[in-house]
What does this fold into?
Amino acid sequence: MPKIAQDGPSGTKDKNLVHSLAKGFRVLEAFTAEEPELLQSEVARRAGLDDGTTFRLLNTLVSLGYVAKVSGTRRFRLTLKPLELGFNAIARTGLRDLARPLLRSLVEEVNEAASLGVLDGDDIVYVERVQAGLVRIGVDIRVGSRIPATATAIGQALLAFLPAPDLDTVLRTARFERIGPDAPASADELRDRLAEVRRNGTALSDWASVNGLRVLAAPVLDRDGYSVAALSVAAPAVRVPKEDFVEAVRAPLVARARELGSAFSAAG
It folds into this structure.
């Protein structure tokens, strides 16, 4: 079951928050891919709300078109309207359309999985992904997946080239989770890592002992030299030694990242 957000950060109250709106989103978040249809009582339990509030919120969401009643039952389900909001956000810059052919050509060249990620708060969100054929690399990453930006190569490649005030903002809220053997454990450790990324132009995550993957990432820079996204290539560690992986992937990855940055700047 997904983690449901409370009324404010860390469960605190905030006079600047519209708590009824937050409750409405908790109702939407109650639905999952595993259980797409829920009774009102199930929604109330998952959202942590009383039955009366849940009844009013569900009926409001039905009237707005975000939730629908399942015909012949007392259950509710999400409509496709929430999906429109997500796609509007993903497509807000046209970055996906520019990246897709470059990712495909990158995959054809290196025969691995390639991804495009953007920063959302202190997370990286995958907004495009291409894999070689039907090969699976053992982790469930898809468009819309989120990971802490501080922990992996694609996040570090992007963070390393942020304007200093933007990086400071991310670090104030960052979660330094040890989700991999070389994930930085503090802001100071991350800053040292980012300095290395700026020198190399790429970031490497070698998680052979955790999920069996090696990931190399490069920033997508705008005309001012600041990152707007990052490209990454992931490969199973058993397939190729680390040094060989970096040597084979680095040049085409950096070339595609630069090409995407130029195209993005030209497109405005």
Notes: The first strand starts at residue 37 and ends at 39. Residues 87-267 form a domain with the Beta-Lactamase fold (CATH 3.30.450.40).
